[in-house]
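Bit of a strange request maybe. I'm writing a small parser for structure token strings and I need a real example to test against, not something I typed by hand. Could someone generate the tokens for this chain?
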Amino acid sequence: MYKKISSLIRKKILEIAYIKKANHIGSNLSIVDILVVLYKDQIKKNNNNKLILSKGHACLSLYCILNYFKFLSSKNLDKYSDNNSVMMSHASHKVPGVFFSTGSLGHGLSYAAGKCYINKKDKIFVLLSDGELNEGSNWEALLFIAHHKLTNLIIIVDYNKLQGIDHVDKVIKLDPIDKKLKSFGFDVLSINGHKHLEIKKAIKKKHKKPLFIIANTIKGKGVDFMENKVLWHYKSLDLDLLGKALKQL
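Reply from user aminoacidic:
Good idea to test on real output. This should exercise your parser:
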């Protein structure tokens, strides 16, 4: 079931990206499996569970997920990236089902930390990009989260190891990210971010410390000419490439 939903979402992302001449396709494709598990198992079933997509440039995948799970109408989805539409190309709280506006990287985690500190009954999932961990505000938030033992906040990093202009290690090296986070006071799990059962088990794992999940992913997952290519952070699809990509899915 998870695989079927993921495939449908990836196809929808590509179709809309082609029509709207949108970019950030690689970033959208890498987080689909994570979003499918979160919405199917956690958010759809419990109104107190919320997601903040801190990597707001990958909002097309979120919008497609929201549409699939009936939070967002197809009529709204069709207006993605249109002038004067609330369906902006970075996540907007004006879109039905979106909890917090993001796009300027480094804001989502700090906001979630404040919400979880105020209300321990809410469970918030924050999905970060690995390049976003270049932002100092995230490390301030991590210190705050660990200090206050905010176990109702689960952090997932989309660790596809590429960012807008280059490989993450060539811009600012993050590894050993697991040791750094453990030293802060986090429980840390490293998983395959495309294996639905691994994702499911990780987010359900009991933890006494705040939980940080390193989801090892592939940028452009599912389309061989996009996978692990920096180019597909900003490149748009033409009709020929759309056809090739859809065949693979």
